[in-house]
């Protein structure tokens, strides 16, 4: 039961990375591919309909962590207190940016929210990437029991006294920026037309190689820094398949892009991101919050809620997930296939 | 009291009070918009449709504010209240996760279609969207109240040997009798806010002789719905709420009523200042025997006073609790009066001419927000010193690994950010009000090409 919830949790997390990540990527690209007011409005329009449901995944992740792994929620959120608060403020900024930008037609007004939207998107990508990096690297838990507190940064080294940001987590953060930008560019290259589409497509092509290299380096470093990855790979060699799926999806994404099949390329990129997140889960199992010293890491079994709670939760979670699938199918089916530059205003 | 606990409580209080400004508008307005849209569907009333679009704009901005200020709430359980979360996650994590899965996806998926999808969906589809957003926002309210109700009155749980709390029954959690009464009271409170907001803007337009048709329609609807809601807030839901507080949280009840000493035939305090040094009420104005009657239906029944509870089981902020409760009740009485007069003139067909009453409706708009907030303050302070009533103390619940310096940092950050958001919100709302209903176009900025 605990393992099942471990999978559901990471599966949901990956859903957020794929769907919410698109909107973050689009935000990072906002200035890069949107040069004029009209183009920027087109960019916002392309995610306006879906970004709220996409972001709900994040809230659901919080809820699922709360119900399935309360100790994980308690230790990680309080331990990463400052970073979490920063992420919350960034989410506020980004949401306001998307939602308020076009409520008043005024150049100063939209310029202001454009910057808020772009800046909070890029910082969100760094933060979420760095958060993932922290989970892979492990946090300073010790024998005194399950609490830790990480400052934003200490000396940027991976010593015993790490901060949230060290060179490894910053690297993962940058990789996240690249991956989400690539993902967002593929979204824009499908759902927009005109100059925005051309720029996005060109950017996606250029970013691809950088992304492959950055992901490769991160995977390699994770295997070095997190001993559990090696243990799991040794005991369950089939885990390599997950990594291969991610790699194959990325390669496929490139070839689909080249043939101009933009939607399939976007989906392939989503699949590769999903697989990367699942790889991470595979590498960390059974830890939900690994420690710098493996002895004190928090395992899923230790963090899990009482088994009755987990069983009861499953009773409503499965039908709820089906319902959510219906909403998403409906919302995405109501999406136009293109958001043209010169839409009627 | 532990200063760290106070800091954590302060931050939660500030962020939740600010957040709750927006959901109460959303919950109230989605009901009213749904009613207006139903009118459109039933009678093809185009004026009502203009009203729907106008209120949709206000709902849009408000909803956005509610979303962004709401996300920090869920995460603060983990950041600031980690010891509580670790123990109770198996229970209250359920309702919070349900809120995400059942309510937020529904709301967020259909709010866009409600706001911008009228042309694409057609009238029936648009009505459906208004219904789903209404259901979503009220469901979300129910899950949150259910979470709070479990902390007020824990049910369907079992305490494990390691102190964690396991849920034993889903239906027990969702049918918590406390939750049902509390939800009705809370939801009706939001309808009061929505009605007063609608009545306020309608009165404003009428006093200025602008947008006559839409304003009259909105005024009539808001006065009818508002009057029903104001009465229902007192009787039966307010009455049932205070009876249940008396039954399950007698110390909190005594504190909120300002009832210090056990008494046969206790009077109900109307005014007076609690004096915590002497444990008496200064300058009291009381109605004799009424408190006994309201709690026991007997004029001479005994009501236990605050001083008969051990000090460590009394709420720790008695005066704010006492005032919050009395402000809520006092304002509730004023609401019944204003809405009662309004509906009287409405039925006589003379409401439009009563400029003084329109002025009253216009100026009354902040009051429901104060009353709703005061009600929640009553509930939350009244539960103290417990975070989970009789199970876990608030002073044992906050995150010990987060220093008060860090909480100061984030509290000040929230204050600054929220102040800025408040300016933006008022700026936008004033803009929408200035533009008026007639400027609300049926749809904006939508691509024509369909899949």
First-residue to last-residue Cα separation of chain B: 62 Å
Q: Roughly how much helix do the residues of chain A carry, as a percent range?
A: over 70%
Describe the biggest sheet of chain B? 2 strands, antiparallel
Q: Count the strands of chain B?
A: 8
Query: What is the N-to-C order of secondary-structure elements of chain A (H for helix, E for strand)?
Result: HHHHHHHHHHHEEHH
Structural category of chain A is: mainly alpha
What is the helix tally of chain A? Answer: 13
Q: Walk across the major sheet of chain B and give the strand order.
A: 1-2
Overall radius of gyration of chain B: 23 Å
The number of helical elements of chain B comes to: 13
Oligomer: heterodimer
- The percentage of residues in β strands of chain A lies in under 5%
Distance between the termini of chain A: 52 Å
How would you classify the helix and strand content of chain B by structural class? mainly alpha
Which two chains touch over the largest interface?
A-B, 76 and 74 residues
Account of the 3D structure:
The complex is a heterodimer of chains A (345) and B (451). Chain A has 13 helices and two strands, in the order αααααααααααββαα. Chain A has 345 residues and is mainly alpha-helical. A two-stranded antiparallel ribbon of chain A has the order 1-2. With 451 residues, chain B is mainly α. Chain B is built from 13 helices and eight strands. Chain B has helices at 3-43, 46-80, 82-116, 118-152, 170-174, 177-207, 212-248, 250-257, 290-296, 318-348, 355-363, 366-383, 404-435; strands at 157-159, 165-167, 263-264, 268-275, 280-287, 302-303, 386-388, 392-393. In chain B, the strands form four sheets. A two-stranded antiparallel sheet of chain B has the order 1-2. Chain B has a two-stranded antiparallel ribbon with strand order 3-6. Chain B has a two-stranded antiparallel ribbon with strand order 4-5. The longest helix of chain B has 41 residues, at 3-43. Mean pLDDT of chain B is 90; it is low at 442-451.
């Amino acid at each position: 039961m605990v393992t099942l919830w471990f999978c559901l949790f990471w599966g949901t997390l990956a859903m957020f990375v794929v769907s919410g990540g698109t909107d973050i990527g689009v935000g990072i690209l906002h200035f890069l591919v949107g040069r004029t007011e009209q183009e920027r409005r087109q960019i916002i329009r392309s995610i306006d309909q879906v970004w709220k449901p996409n972001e709900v995944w994040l809230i659901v992740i919080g809820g699922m962590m709360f119900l399935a792994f309360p100790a994980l929620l308690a230790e990680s959120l309080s331990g990463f207190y400052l970073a979490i608060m920063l992420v919350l403020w960034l989410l506020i900024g980004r949401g306001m940016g998307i939602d308020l930008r076009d409520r008043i037609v005024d150049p100063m007004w939209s310029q202001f929210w454009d910057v808020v939207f772009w800046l909070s998107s890029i910082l969100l990508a760094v933060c979420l990437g760095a958060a993932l990096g922290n989970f892979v690297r492990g946090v300073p838990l010790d024998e005194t029991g399950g609490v830790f507190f990480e400052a934003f940064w200490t000396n940027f080294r991976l010593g015993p006294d790490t901060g949230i940001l060290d060179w490894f987590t910053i690297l993962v953060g940058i990789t996240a920026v690249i991956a989400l930008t690539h993902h967002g560019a593929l979204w824009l290259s499908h759902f927009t037309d005109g100059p925005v589409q051309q720029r996005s497509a060109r950017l996606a092509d250029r970013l691809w190689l950088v992304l492959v290299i950055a992901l490769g380096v991160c995977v390699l470093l994770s295997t070095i820094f997190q001993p559990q990855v090696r243990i799991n790979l040794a005991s369950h060699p089939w885990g390599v398949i997950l990594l291969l799926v991610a790699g194959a999806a990325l390669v496929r994404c490139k070839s689909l892009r080249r043939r101009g099949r933009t939607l399939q390329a976007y989906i392939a990129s989503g699949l590769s991101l999903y697989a990367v997140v699942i790889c991470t889960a595979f590498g960390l199992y059974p830890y939900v919050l690994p420690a710098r010293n493996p002895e004190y890491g928090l395992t899923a079994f230790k963090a899990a809620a009482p088994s009755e709670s987990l069983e009861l939760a499953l009773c409503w979670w499965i039908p709820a997930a089906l319902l959510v699938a219906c909403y998403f199918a409906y919302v995405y089916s109501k999406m136009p296939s293109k958001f043209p530059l010169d839409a009627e205003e | 009291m532990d200063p760290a606990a106070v800091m954590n409580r302060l931050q939660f209080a500030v962020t939740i009070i600010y957040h709750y400004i927006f959901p109460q508008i959303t919950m109230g307005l989605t009901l009213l918009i749904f009613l207006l849209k139903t009118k459109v569907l039933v009678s093809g009333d185009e004026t009502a449709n203009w009203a729907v679009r106008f209120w949709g704009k206000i709902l849009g901005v408000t909803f956005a504010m509610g979303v962004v200020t709401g996300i920090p709430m869920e995460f603060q359980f983990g950041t600031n209240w980690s010891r509580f979360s670790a123990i109770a996650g198996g229970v209250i994590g359920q309702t919070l996760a349900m809120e995400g899965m059942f309510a937020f996806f529904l709301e967020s998926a259909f709010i866009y279609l409600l706001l911008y999808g009228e042309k694409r969906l057609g009238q029936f589809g648009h009505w459906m969207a208004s219904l789903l957003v209404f259901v979503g926002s009220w469901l979300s309210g129910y899950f949150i109240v259910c979470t709070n109700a479990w902390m007020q009155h824990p049910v369907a749980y079992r305490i494990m040997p390691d102190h964690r709390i396991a849920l034993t029954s889903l239906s027990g959690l969702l049918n918590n009798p406390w939750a049902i009464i509390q939800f009705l009271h809370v939801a009706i409170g939001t309808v009061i806010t929505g009605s007063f907001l609608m009545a306020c803007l309608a009165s404003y337009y009428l006093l200025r002789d602008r947008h006559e048709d839409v304003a009259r329609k909105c005024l009539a609807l808001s006065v009818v719905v508002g009057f029903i809601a104001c009465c229902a807030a007192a009787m039966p839901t307010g009455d049932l709420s205070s009876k249940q507080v008396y039954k399950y949280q007698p110390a909190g009840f005594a504190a909120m009523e300002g009832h210090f000493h056990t008494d046969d035939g206790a009077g109900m305090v109307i005014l007076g200042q609690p004096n915590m040094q002497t444990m008496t009420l200064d300058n009291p104005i009381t109605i004799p025997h009424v408190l006994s009657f309201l709690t026991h239906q007997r004029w001479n029944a005994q009501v236990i006073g605050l001083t008969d509870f051990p000090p460590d089981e009394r709420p720790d902020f008695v005066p704010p609790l006492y005032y919050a409760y009395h402000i809520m009740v006092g304002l509730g009485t004023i609401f019944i009066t204003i809405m009662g007069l309004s509906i009287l003139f409405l039925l006589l067909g003379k409401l439009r001419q009563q400029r003084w009453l329109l002025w009253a409706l216009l100026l009354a708009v902040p009051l429901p927000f104060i009353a709703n907030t005061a009600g929640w303050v009553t509930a939350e302070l009244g539960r103290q010193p417990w975070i989970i009533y009789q199970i876990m103390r608030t002073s044992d619940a906050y995150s010990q690994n987060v220093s008060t310096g860090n909480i100061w940092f984030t509290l000040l950050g929230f204050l600054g950010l929220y102040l800025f958001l408040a300016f933006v919100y008022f700026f936008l709302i004033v803009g929408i009000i200035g533009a008026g209903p007639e400027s609300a176009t049926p749809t904006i900025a939508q691509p024509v090409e369909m899949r």
